Amino acid sequence: MLFFGGDYNPEQWPEEVWAEDVALMRQAGVTIATVGVFAWSNLEPEPGHYEFGWLDRVLDRLHDGGIRVALATPTASPPPWFTLAHPEAMPVGADGVRLTHGSRDTYCVSAPAYRAAARGIAAKLAERYANHPALAMWHVHNEYGTDCRCDATAAAFRAWLQKKHGDLDALNESWTTAFWSQRYSDWAQITPPRATQYLPNPAHVLDFRRFLSDELLSGYVEQRDLLRAANPDVPITTNFVQGGWVSVDHARWATEVDLVAVDHYPAATDAGAEEETAFAGDLARGWGGGSWLLMETAPNLIYTSGRMHAKEPGRLTRHSLGYVARGSGGAMYFQWRQPRGGAELFHSALVPHAGPDSPIFREAVGLGRRLRALSPHVAEAGPPSARIAVTWDAPSWWALQGGGLPSADIDYLAAVQQAHRVLFRSKLATDFVFPGVSTDLGDYRMIVVPHLYLVSDEAAAAFRDYVANGGRLVVGYLSGIAEPDTRIRLGGYPGAFRDVLGVRVVEWHPQPPGVEFPLDNGERASRWSERVETAGAETLARYTAGVLAGAPAVTRNRYGAGSAWYVSTALTDDGLGRLLRSVAEEAGVAPVLPGLPAPVEAVRRGDLLFLFNHGIAAATVPLPGPAVDAATGRDRGDTVTVQGGGVATVRLR
Ligand code: GLA
Questions:
Q1: Is the N or the C terminus of the chain less surrounded, counting Cβ atoms within 10 Å?
Q2: pLDDT at 268
Q3: Which one of 140, 237, 344, 348 would you pick to mutate in the ligand 1 pocket, going by the greatest count of ligand atoms within 8 A of its CB?
Q4: Is residue 75 within 6 Å of ligand 1 at its C-beta?
Q5: Residue from 143, 274, 530, 601 carrying the catalytic annotation
Q6: What is the pLDDT of residue 532?
Q7: How far apart are CA 67 and CA 19, in angstroms?
Q8: Pairing outcome for strands 619-629 and 635-642
Q9: What is the number of the ligand 1 atom nearest to the C-alpha of 296?
């Protein structure tokens, strides 16, 4: 059964409202409610004094209404009494300023008092609710990501570094501390990166980011293990966040959760939102190894660039089914009922301030019905499958967020999103692979590698084997530059990929912003250029202007049974699309459906086909054969007309 529901905060409301909540949830076909995410101060109003009565009544009510519960541990927001008892457990910024309560996420995950308190409340919840019949899953914490640079963090960081590097000589070597007299002669000299005079050491910063991800993960694992001990049959997860700030390496975390749960709030309000939704769904599916769960998205108003943006009717349904098409086991929202107060008082909800007599609640009722009808089909269909993959690597992203880089326009996330976006627009189904975590590159026919700055020897060898065995590899600039610890691979860029690409880059020529320059094949490029020397590769396009005029810009190398392309500059979306489509064609990878009208997105899961019309006018889609409507079982023939802004789901016969 597909999950449908979201964050439910009854602690913000008088008990009279709870009965209406359950009645409305039943009306909308809600199947699950995430309870207790920020309820610590209601559950433990004073240290060691617990009040579970209200939560008992909430869970029983939901259970009586046939609604399951994702029960959260409330550890993302310790109560004010905790701050006063343990000021040393409050997070300290790089500038040395210690924060205090008054918002949320104010804790240091390395502080022993915080850890003990988090274990304490999680253990109490486990003891009381691990066998509650409504319990569908545990939702540990909320969006792990808090950064701290305090002394407790410093101690934990040193322990992590000792384990990783073994001795100080190795650390000094790995961090190139001979640069600017940074050589450490005692572990005690090492701190988290803190406010300093000029650029910090990039290897220090990257190790700290990796440490922080692992440290937060250890906080999760500690809670997970005690919840699991209380009832090994209940799945345990925590909600990953996707967006522009990401403190943890989700590809690594994914193996520690029973199901990958993701919060996704598209920032774009135009067609870009569809592209972001597809990106988020494909990436989450990659982390989850085929399946995942959309834990939060906004039902309506979202904060975008200084003002809230309302979703037009139908968008909630279209995007929600979009996540489901891409492997989510349901659609869940932040939040059920819009709050009367608090910091996010205007954040949208399925039941808005206006009440259930509102477009959003009516749309939710329709969506609940559709999800119910789709459930059995999705259960049979299995995940969508793709023959093309794009690489994703959080440490490369982090490394490219540092200072000391050759251009201020370097943007890892944008480069990966562009690769995915042009494949999406080309109607080519796409997966993700994680070469920093696993060298298994699957049996993809084509892999696109944007800005994979850090590459291990093992990963480089896996890419080589992949191409030698017939794979098609498209490598973008700023890939293969450094070893995983940020030390440059010498002898010419893109170090790790030089042999498979048959090129050697001897100089970078970053370009000023806003300037486009032509290549000799008619494409236009911007932001970046390089002096590329071929060493076996053929040249597909050359630079035409400036000192690089006549030098290779895009190349292709035949290597074993496969081929590897190198793109040394930033192509436009259209240009990159043309290149990737030609590679896909050569690799024998076809679009999801032939002849799809431009605004229609198709996602195929076995014989189950989702058709999303992101345009305004109705669109008619030719099908590969006769189909039946997945919701009604009615015959649809071999064409389907999808209303503007609508979604059709059919089963091919
Ligand atoms: C996150 C949080 C929620 C809420 C939403 C608002 O996903 O988990 O508590 O703050 O953002 O968009």
A1: C
A2: 86
A3: 344
A4: no
A5: 143
A6: 98
A7: 13
A8: antiparallel
A9: 7
Q: How would you write 378-407 as a 3-class SS string?
A: HHHHCCCCCCEEEECCHHHHHHCCCCCCCC
pLDDT on residue 404:
92
Cα–Cα distance, 534 to 555 (Å, whole number): 8
Distance 105 CA to ligand 1 centre (A): 11
The protein residue with its alpha carbon nearest to ligand 1, atom 5, reads: 334
Instruction: With beta carbons less than 8 A apart as the criterion, state whether 425 and 577 touch.
Output: yes
The residues with which 296 forms a beta bridge, in sequence order, are: 263
Residue with tokens 């890892």: 412
| Residues of the chain scoring pLDDT < 70 | none
Tokens found for residue 247: 């403190």
Encoded tokens for 589: 């990878």
Burial category of 409 from C-beta neighbours within 10 Å (exposed 0-12, middle 13-18, buried 19 and up): middle
Q: Are strands 503-508 and 516-518 parallel, antiparallel or unpaired?
A: unpaired
533 is catalytic: no
Tell me if 34 CB under 6 Å of ligand 1. Answer: no
For residue 458, how far is its CA from the centre of ligand 1 (angstroms)?
38
Ramachandran class of 248: left when φ > 0, alpha when ψ lies in -120 to 50, beta otherwise: beta
To the query of whether residue 523 is one of the catalytic residues in this protein, the response is no
Ligand 1 close to Cβ of residue 265 (< 6 A): yes
Cα(429)–Cα(314) distance, integer angstroms = 24
Q: Is the dihedral of CA 65, 69, 72, 73 positive or negative?
A: positive
Complete DSSP assignment for 328-353 = EEEEEES-SB--SSSTTTTS--SB-T
Torsion 302-305-308-313 (CA) sign: negative
C-beta 333 within 6 A of ligand 1: no
Q: What is the pTM of this model?
A: 0.98
Q: How far is the CA of 651 from the centre of ligand 1 (A)?
A: 35
**Ligand 1 near 143 CB (within 6 A):** yes
Atom of ligand 1 at shortest range from CA of 38: 9
Distances (CA, A) of 64 to 210, 511, 603: 45, 64, 37
pLDDT at 123: 98
647-652 β-sheet, strand order? 600-605, 608-613, 647-652, 619-629, 635-642
Q: Give the list of residues 6+ apart from residue 148 with CB closer than 8 angstroms, or none.
A: 91, 92, 108, 109, 110, 111, 192
Q: What pLDDT is recorded for position 303?
A: 78
Q: Is the CB of 38 under 6 A from ligand 1?
A: no
Among protein residues, the one with the nearest Cα to ligand 1's atom 4 is 334
